[in-house]
Write a structure and sequence with these properties.
single chain; mainly beta; four-stranded antiparallel β-sheet
Length: about 450
């Protein structure tokens, strides 16, 4: 047998394929277990693979719920904790719907696998069942509070449009070219719109025919059910100038279908809606003046029926987001999370090169750090009783893993250890902080340098 390399050897480019990327922690409704995603890189397949794992919140052995032979992501617990809805590009068991006969083909997936669809699996294991079979894929499942429906996002054909607020004209092909009639006509990774926009749908949790809730020549994103299950909040740009502005606003639509209502619509970039526990308010992130880049994203709340929003972090000179950058992490939902009593909200914020969880008191707008240290938190969740947190954290010498702590940040414990063998073999160097004055001398600039192991 070949001899294993000695511990502490310098890292090599091939080691990148050994790093496990932990992301998207989700607590079960009773707070006893955590579902999360582990993504791996496969050199031979030139592809990413991801599996959903489960681990007890109090600690113990993690189990692999899905095989990881495809890309299984976005685990979302059913309200009774018996099942998990997720997104996967595995081979379908239900053929996709046929696309419209307008000459456009469904977009090719980024790998050789199928497009993403919504699936469901029992937490006790077994075969997953396919819930959607959209011709252009589906994403972002969200369970209704009573567990009977699952909302999701998917492209809609013009013929499916529930609103009829617009009359799309058929494409006008000229040889192999297209005639472009709108300023926004394509996105990277999505291609040409072809009059198809991402909309909000629902499907019975047991499977069945999906129902389209939104429409129009604009996308919908970031869905969230109201606690009573009557409405679904989402982010969109339904302003008259949507072809030329960068507005994003908060809307709601009845869960059974009906008139879309604006909760907060103005010249702003708002995102990440989250309902208060009693359903009377919505928290969200963003800033005013949509045309301005680089502005801090603040925490806001507004009455669920609409009205004047309140900025709760205006005095906190940091943007409420994970602004870290890395090629060895997987992004997760960063929405604010309410405390069960509705008096505070927890958010992520980046400061001095680190990202941590902060608590924002809604009474006095005080912003207090919860986690700390030279590390980056990329995602978190709060137990239903508000007593404990689970979060994904890493630093320059430790790839991201899953942790648990009290809601105050105390008594931190590591729950996952997917990179143990990798860390036992290679030597990783910590980042050394540097501070220096700007050329004009009136600003302090922060930077870092990473030296090779045993550097002299």
């Amino acid at each position: 047998m070949p001899t294993a390399p000695p511990p502490g050897r310098p890292i090599e480019d091939e080691d990148l394929f050994r790093i496990k990327l932990v992301s998207d922690p989700r607590l079960s409704p009773d707070g006893s277990r955590v579902a999360y995603v582990v993504t791996t890189l496969d050199k031979d397949a030139d592809d990413y693979f991801a599996a959903i794992w489960l681990v007890p919140r109090q600690g113990g052995d993690a189990i692999k719920l899905t095989a990881g032979t495809a890309r299984d992501t976005t685990p979302r617990w059913s309200p009774d904790g018996s099942a998990i809805a997720f997104v996967s590009n595995r081979a379908p068991t239900i053929p996709p719907d046929q696309p419209a006969a307008d000459g456009d083909k469904p977009p090719k997936p980024q790998s050789s696998r199928s497009l993403n669809q919504i699936w469901q699996i029992s937490v006790d294991g077994g075969e997953a069942s396919q819930l959607t079979h959209r011709a252009y894929g589906a994403a972002d499942p969200a369970w209704s509070p009573d567990g009977t429906m699952i909302a999701f996002l998917a492209l809609a054909e013009p013929a499916d449009d529930a609103e009829r607020q617009w009359t799309p004209e058929p494409p006008k092909p000229v040889a192999d070219e297209r005639i472009i009639e709108r300023l926004r006509y394509r996105f990277d990774g999505r291609g040409f719109f072809a009059h198809r926009y991402q909309q909000v749908w629902t499907v019975p949790a047991t499977g069945g025919e999906p129902k389209l809730l939104t429409g129009g020549d604009t996308d919908a994103d970031q869905i969230a059910w109201s606690p009573d299950g009557s409405r679904i909040a989402f982010v969109s740009n339904r302003s008259e100038g949507r072809q030329v502005n960068s507005v994003s606003a908060i809307y709601t639509v009845p869960a059974r279908g009906g008139e879309i209502r604006s909760v907060i619509e103005r010249d702003a970039r708002f995102s990440s809606p989250a309902w208060s526990p009693d359903g009377t308010r919505l928290a969200f992130l963003g800033h005013l003046e949509s045309f301005v880049n680089g502005r801090n994203d603040n925490l806001w709340t507004v009455a669920a029926a609409g009205g004047e929003p309140t900025n709760h972090s205006a005095a906190f000179d940091r943007s409420l987001e994970d602004a870290g950058m890395s090629d060895v992490f997987v992004g997760s939902d960063q929405r604010p999370i309410w405390a069960p009593d509705g008096t505070s909200v927890r958010v992520l914020a980046s400061d001095q090169g680190m990202t941590h969880i902060y608590r924002v008191s809604l009474d006095d707008n005080k912003v207090s750090p919860v986690t700390s240290g030279d590390a980056r938190v990329t995602a978190f969740d709060l137990t239903p009783d508000g007593v404990s947190l689970v979060y994904v954290m890493g630093d320059a010498t430790h790839p991201f893993e899953l942790f648990c702590a009290r809601a105050t940040g105390r008594d931190k414990r590591q729950l996952s250890d997917h990179n143990r063998e990798f860390l036992a073999e290679v030597a990783l160097s910590p980042a050394q902080e540097l501070r220096f004055q700007s050329q004009t001398g009136d600003l302090e600039v922060q930077g870092w340098v990473i030296k090779p192991p045993d550097f002299k």
